Amino acid sequence: MRYLIRSIKYFFWFVCIFALIMLVLVLMGTAGGDISSMFRGGYSALWKIALIFAVIAAFYPKFGFARQVLASEEGITPDRQLIREYMLSRGYIPEKDEAGLMTFRCKGTSARLSRMLEDRITFTQEADGMQVEGLRKDVVRIVSGIMHRMRTDME
Predict the structure, then answer these.
(1) Chain centroid to CA 68
(2) Which of 14, 63, 95, 153 could form a disulfide with 53 if both were Cys (CB 3.0 to 4.6 A apart)?
(3) Is 5:118 a contact under the CB 8 Å cutoff?
(4) Residue 90 and residue 33: Cα distance in Å, rounded?
(5) What is the DSSP string of 26-44?
(6) Verdict on whether the full-model pTM lies above 0.85
(7) 63: three-class secondary structure by DSSP
């Protein structure tokens, strides 16, 4: 269900960006204000464009979100306090802190909106370490940052 909601969000996000770009082109005088003069095929081209956006939006959540295990080569997992301090220093605030589960959200409204309110980072305790889930770029940055902090704390 979450995958479907994300796909729908991204579809509308693509449509809004496309409409904004077309509006800027019309206001600059680069494109005519009539749909039939903007696109070859007129209004029928809008359905083709929407179909392309739907296909991209259907696959984007699969590649845009990731899960990654957070554990060192020695099998050492970071403690909850280290994770909490690191996330606070990166502009995330704790949302939920239960046994085996921690979730964080972006502090700033602009950061949350730029991620289409899909800014939740989830830490789940597992047998082989902590599993981190969220936007791919954020997960990679957070996992590498925490691993770096763990290495410098060990030295």
Answers:
(1) 14
(2) 14
(3) no
(4) 44
(5) HHHTSS-SSHHHHSTTTHH
(6) no
(7) helix
